[in-house]
Amino acid sequence: MTESVIPQGVPHLQFLTSKLKNSATTSALFAGFAMIALVEVDIKGGEPQLLTIIFATLTSLLIFFHLIALLISTCLIPTAEGLESFIQPEHFSIPTNSMKETFIKLTRSYINTAWLFTTVLGTFFFMAEIIVLAWLKFYLVSLAACYAITAIIVPMMTFGRGQAS
């Protein structure tokens, strides 16, 4: 969702604060999942080495993108909420709307980066991670299970990519 489709009647700052909160929540969950997957995965040793390398790389990228999004969100949410609810115009010589607009202008690129990392890149890497985890888990047991999960998730990744653009 971009700023051009903000629901009518919802202040711009409130909308951006909501994006940050959603980004933080989603990123914390996905990064936590990836860290647990990295620790708990049971690599038996018979899997192809390339599969293990892909898993390690995807896990690192998944954690990286979500932690960056979480960092951005965590740093900006308190300021956005403060501007949204605690600023009283009579306490400042600068009009409150001007302060809000300045904050929005200064942080819009960071907010959009956090949103992009969470909803586009992070979700893509999360789904890819599920596929690779399935291959690691079932490679020695059933290749049919590996193909099945790949056949189910790849179309979802394609659909999600089409929705994000």
Notes on the protein architecture:
The protein has 165 residues and is an all-alpha fold. The chain has one domain (11-164): Calcium release-activated calcium channel protein Orai (Butyryl-CoA Dehydrogenase, subunit A, domain 3). It is built from 4 helices and no strands. It is elongated and about 60 Å long.
Comma- or semicolon-separated keywords:
165 residues; mainly alpha; Butyryl-CoA Dehydrogenase, subunit A, domain 3; elongated
Topology, element by element:
Blueprint: H1 12-40, H2 49-85, H3 96-138, H4 143-164
Helix pairs in contact: 1-2, 1-3, 2-3, 3-4
Summarize this, please?
The chain is mainly alpha-helical and 165 residues long. The protein has helices at residues 12-40, 49-85, 96-138, 143-164.
Question: How many structural units, i.e. domains?
Answer: 1
Task: Give the low-confidence spans.
Answer: 6-10
How can the largest sheet be summarized?
none
Give the mean pLDDT.
Answer: 81
Per CATH, the architecture is Up-down Bundle
How many separate helices?
4
- Let me know the number of strands: 0
Relative helix content: over 70%
Secondary-structure-based class equals mainly alpha
CATH superfamily: Calcium release-activated calcium channel protein Orai
The proportion of strand residues reads under 5%
Sum up the overall morphology in one term.
Answer: elongated
What is the CATH third-level topology name? Butyryl-CoA Dehydrogenase, subunit A, domain 3
**Element-level helix/strand string:** HHHH
Rounded to an integer in angstroms, the radius of gyration calculated over CA atoms is 20 Å
Tell me the span between the first and last alpha carbons. Answer: 9 Å
Q: What would CATH call the class?
A: Mainly Alpha
